[in-house]
Amino acid sequence: MSSKKASALPPLSPAEQALMDLIWQKQPVSTGDLLQAVNDGRAEPITRSTLQTQLTRLEAKGWLLSDDQGRARLYRSAPSEKGGRGKVLAELKQRFFGGSGLSLVRCLVEEGGLTDEEMTELNQLIETHRKGTRP
Hints:
Shape: elongated
Structural class: mainly alpha
Largest sheet: 3 strands, antiparallel
CATH architecture of the largest domain: Orthogonal Bundle
Number of strands: 3
CATH topology of the largest domain: Arc Repressor Mutant, subunit A
Strand order of the largest sheet: 1-3-2
Distance between the termini: 22 Å
Radius of gyration: 18 Å
Number of domains: 2
Strand content: 5-15%
């Protein structure tokens, strides 16, 4: 799915976003492996039934695709990670920063949300884009 199609997907809840983050890291991933990853370090683990409900909802919303591989069902993201994260970022930018990318970045810089290394990388990225080339 292209990032253009990702922009048409419905918004994700915070729990769905956390699940998509894991799926982007581990795809294709089985329900069992995903359940283990979700519960890793949790004080109160979620049940397989709860996870399956979330996966079914994400599939119905168009965020996930699934394939049966023998006895296991494997899940993968429908949009690319870049397209999906771009969709979430666009929503965040609109909801919290009135659509302003500058306000979003200003908040990260001024509130200490970026390390010195990230600031250096951001400066390099800005300079690269200013020169008209893309990484």
